[in-house]
């Protein structure tokens, strides 16, 4: 089985189109959301699309974005919302792979969802193991519990999320039938690293303070690495919305089935509705707008006030019987 060129990317950090070989499939990469003046669909996603041109074979993604409507008549784009598909691999079907035809390169998201989607595409639309789609959905939505394989790979990737060698090992491990060997060993070692940093995550979890609907923690001064996803989940155990302030950025999250849409609330244009990361500088006051309800305070205060002043969200049903409603 020939392995296509693999390129790992994110909505805000896309490769130069000329670096991607031949016909290209893009998986689990959202159109860039609008944050400030330098990050937007027009500044990041459109130049990449223009650069690929007719070499784009398919773009498969499940993140909300206001620009999706512009591509509904282009059969190369298979786009949905997070509510319709909790994860991307379930969108990669044998029929889609067959219709798309031979490809030379896969450009996929850096997380488990993206890597599973890439492996499934290489396997012709077949799950790399029974339950892989369910594992990807559980990891990407944080609803339900992934199996042992998904849990180990998720922890490995979160421990070394910048390690492209590990990402390649994950795809090759999945495509190769979960065989023991160097790929499996690399994943196991990274998962063990995750366990070591969990102590710092738990320490930071004890710092959360409650401000209305929001549990907020500031990581300033924290020594050592921590896992942001688990830290956000710890905050969600204390309040409906969790917020982590880290290095000038605010990461905001709520349960997948909560009904919160932070993309709309913070006017980002696109992304995952229940988890966003925004620079503090993108607050209302920093944009020159009036703070929410006349709030007086820091950009952090503005963001918290925006959430606390928003209408109560309507929870939505989640589960295998409702994911595609």
Order of helices and strands: EEHEEEHEHHHHHEEHEEHEEH
Q: Oligomerization state of this entry? A: single chain
- Termini separation comes to 36 Å
**How do the strands of the widest beta sheet line up side by side?**
1-6-2-3-5
Question: What Rg do the Cα atoms give?
Answer: 20 Å
Overall pLDDT score: 89
| Helix/sheet category | alpha/beta
Give the biggest sheet: 5 strands, parallel
Per DSSP E runs of 2 or more residues, the count of β-strands stands at 12
Q: Proportion of β residues?
A: 15-25%
Q: Please give the share of residues in helix.
A: 25-40%
Compute the number of structural domains: 2
What is the helix tally? 10
Rough shape?
Answer: globular
Low-confidence parts, pLDDT < 50 over ≥5 residues?
A: 319-325
Note the topology.
Elements: E1 5-9, E2 24-27, H1 41-52, E3 56-61, E4 64-65, E5 77-79, H2 94-100, E6 105-109, H3 112-122, H4 132-141, H5 148-159, H6 164-175, H7 182-205, E7 209-211, E8 214-218, H8 228-236, E9 241-246, E10 249-254, H9 262-265, E11 270-271, E12 275-279, H10 299-309
Helix pairs in contact: 3-6, 4-5, 5-7, 6-7, 7-8
Overview of the structural elements:
This protein is of the alpha/beta class and 325 residues long. The protein is 34% helix and 16% strand. It contains 10 helices and 12 strands. α6 crosses α7. The protein is globular and about 55 Å long.
């Amino acid at each position: 089985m020939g392995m296509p060129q693999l390129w790992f990317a994110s909505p805000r950090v896309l490769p130069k189109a000329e670096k991607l070989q031949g016909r290209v499939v893009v998986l689990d990469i959202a159109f860039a959301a609008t944050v400030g003046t330098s990050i937007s669909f027009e500044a990041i996603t459109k130049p990449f699309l223009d650069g690929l041109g007719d070499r784009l074979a398919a773009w498969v993604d499940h993140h909300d974005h206001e620009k999706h409507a512009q591509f509904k008549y282009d059969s190369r784009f298979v786009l949905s919302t997070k509510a319709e598909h909790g994860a991307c691999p379930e969108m990669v079907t044998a029929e889609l792979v067959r219709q798309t035809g031979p490809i030379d390169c896969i450009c996929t998201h850096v997380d488990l969802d993206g890597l599973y989607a890439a492996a499934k595409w290489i396997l012709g639309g077949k799950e790399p193991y029974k339950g892989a789609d369910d594992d990807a959905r559980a990891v990407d939505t944080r609803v339900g519990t992934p199996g042992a394989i998904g849990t180990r790979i998720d922890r490995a990737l979160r421990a070394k999320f910048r390690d492209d060698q590990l990402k390649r090992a994950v795809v090759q491990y999945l495509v190769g039938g979960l065989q023991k060997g160097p790929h499996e060993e690399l994943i196991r070692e990274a998962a063990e690293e995750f366990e070591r940093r969990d102590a710092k995550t738990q320490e930071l979890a004890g710092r959360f303070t409650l401000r209305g609907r929001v549990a907020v923690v500031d990581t300033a001064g924290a020594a050592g690495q921590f896992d942001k996803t688990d830290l956000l989940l710890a905050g969600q155990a204390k309040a409906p919305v969790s917020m982590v302030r880290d290095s000038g950025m605010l990461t905001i999250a709520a349960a997948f089935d909560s009904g919160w849409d932070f993309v709309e609330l913070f006017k980002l244009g696109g992304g995952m509705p229940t988890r966003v990361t925004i620079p503090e500088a993108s607050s209302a006051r920093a944009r020159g707008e009036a703070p929410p309800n006349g709030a007086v305070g820091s950009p952090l205060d503005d963001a918290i006030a925006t959430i606390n002043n928003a209408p109560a969200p309507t929870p939505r049903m989640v589960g295998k019987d409702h994911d595609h409603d």
